[in-house]
Amino acid sequence: MTDKYCVIGNPIAHSKSPEIHPVYAAQTGQDLVYERCLAPLDGFEATVHRLVAEGYRGANVTLPFKIEAARVCTRLEERARAAGAVNTLIFANGEIVGDNTDGPGLVADITRNAGVAIEDKRVLLLGAGGAARGALLPLVGQGPREIVIANRTVATAEALARDFSGHGVPITASGFGEVDGSFDIVINATSSSIAGDLPPVAPTVFGPDTLALDMMYGNQPTVFMDFATRHGATVRDGLGMLVEQAAEAFAIWRGVRPETATVMKKMRP
User: Fold this and answer.
1) What is the value of pTM for the model shown?
2) Regions in the chain scoring below 70 on pLDDT
3) Rounded CA separation 83/88 (Å)
4) For residues 269 and 45, is the Cβ–Cβ distance under 8 A?
5) Could you list the active site residues?
């Protein structure tokens, strides 16, 4: 029997995940289908239980349900516990297991696709919401020299820094306007690009060797990417992160890791 998977969100028509997973399945000889699933804003939990009853093997979770997904699970993997959010569900042995592959996808895109090592680098993380939280544990695991979390509400960034302070990497918090010096890697984990806005950081955070990555992706560079480019940085959007987090989820579900370069070329010829 063909195994069934889907991505749950609201809205969901824009999701590129159903274009990615069939390529991974063909590449690895896996028999599965992968669909979009629109869940009512007040009906996420009911949707998950329906999918389990209908024999689905797992699901990805996108906005706005990632935090709610953590509450639906019977068990959370360490990455999901640290993130406080779930983007990958595994339905097996009567359990709903939650994982978070966003951070590993980000790290894989930076280190493998962009060819930039995170170890011993100065990293600026813009934003202190769910996207930033999901990225922190995998980023810390790469051994950066320092991580600075900048956010409009400094107290939120300070709380996030405290939560991840016990891993041997200095993590500090700052307001956007108080960020000091330039960084090797600048990651925009805010939602500002959706509205065409820009986190109000000084252009001095960028240098000629800076990699600036926006977690958002689209057909055109984001405002953040344009700003970073104008001030000398090399830029990436979040498409590589999307492709890599999908590969991580696929490996969790199927026990085989797909090759991502083919999908990157297909998504952006």
Assistant:
1) 0.93
2) 269
3) 12
4) no
5) 66
